[in-house]
C-alpha cells in the first residue's frame, strides 16, 4: 500500500489550498479514506473521511470550510480547504485507517 500526499504549503488566513493523496497497492474504490492532521505536542485530529459509497464525515472544526472528495478512476482522495485559519496549521496525513498512512504534507496558515 502506498499513500502519497501533495499540495501542502503556506497560505495566508482566509486563503485556500487543496491537498491530494495518490494511492496504490489496493482496490481504492472499495475502501474508506480519511484525512488526519497532527500538530506537534497535540493529539492527532481526524479532519474528514469519505466512505467507499461516498458517505462523508467532517470534524466540527472544519465543517463548512473543508471538502473531502475522491476520484476512483485516479485512485486519489482530495481535501479542499477554504477559509483557512491559523489553527489549521498542521501536518496533514492521508490514511487508510487504521494501518496505512502517508508521509504527510505540511499546511501552514500565516
Tell me about this structure:
It is built from no helices and eleven strands. It is mainly beta and 110 residues long. Strands 2, 4, 5, 6, 9, 10 and 11 form a seven-stranded mixed sheet that branches. The chain has a four-stranded antiparallel sheet with strand order 1-3-8-7, with no helix packed on it. Strand 4 and strand 5 form a beta hairpin. The termini are far apart. The mean pLDDT is 97.
The number of strands is 11
Please estimate the helix content. Answer: under 10%
Q: Quick one: overall form? A: globular
Seen as an oligomer or otherwise, the chain set is: single chain
Supply the helix-strand structural class: mainly beta
Strand content: over 45%
Arithmetic mean pLDDT: 97
Q: Specify the biggest β-sheet.
A: 7 strands, mixed
